[in-house]
Amino acid sequence: MGVPTLTLCGATMAGRQGVDIMRSYGLEQFVAFSEADYISKAIGWREHFDELNEIRVGMRGKIPTENERGFNVAGTFEQALQEAWRMYCAGEAARTFTVLE
Questions:
Q1: Over 90: is that where the pLDDT of 80 sits?
Q2: Which residues of 12-50 are buried (b: 16+ CB within 10 A; e: fewer)?
Q3: Residue 5 needs a FRET pair 20 to 30 A away by CA distance; which of 26, 41, 79, 90 works?
Q4: Rounded CA gap, 78 and 28, in Å?
Q5: Cα dist from 83 to 72, 73, 75, 77, 78, whole Å
Q6: Which comes out higher in pLDDT, residue 21 or 42?
Q7: Phi, psi of 37 (to 5 degrees)
Q8: Nearby residues of 51 by Cβ (< 8 Å), 6 or more positions away
Q9: What residue ranges do the domains of the chain occupy?
Q10: CA-CA distance, 53 to 1, in Å (whole number)?
């Protein structure tokens, strides 16, 4: 958590999601709208390390740990990964399971 990511706006789900995430955190300067813009921004940020570090340090406070309904997305995902790992280590067959809040 806390690393701004340069993203290329495009037709893919990943591109659209990256744009949405950067905008929601007020980091529009990390959105590129063409490959040339992406390269330019990457080179530009490489030359502004101190500013990039200030942004990185301040990001943890901008990223909510819960959604608007109070649901802890990261914590629940962590529980799911732990359960999947437990099942794998126990030699259980892959199956669907539910993680409760």
A1: yes
A2: eeeeeebbebbeebebeebbbeeeeebeebeeebeeeee
A3: 79
A4: 29
A5: 17, 15, 12, 10, 9
A6: 42
A7: -65, -40
A8: none
A9: 7-62, 66-100
A10: 13
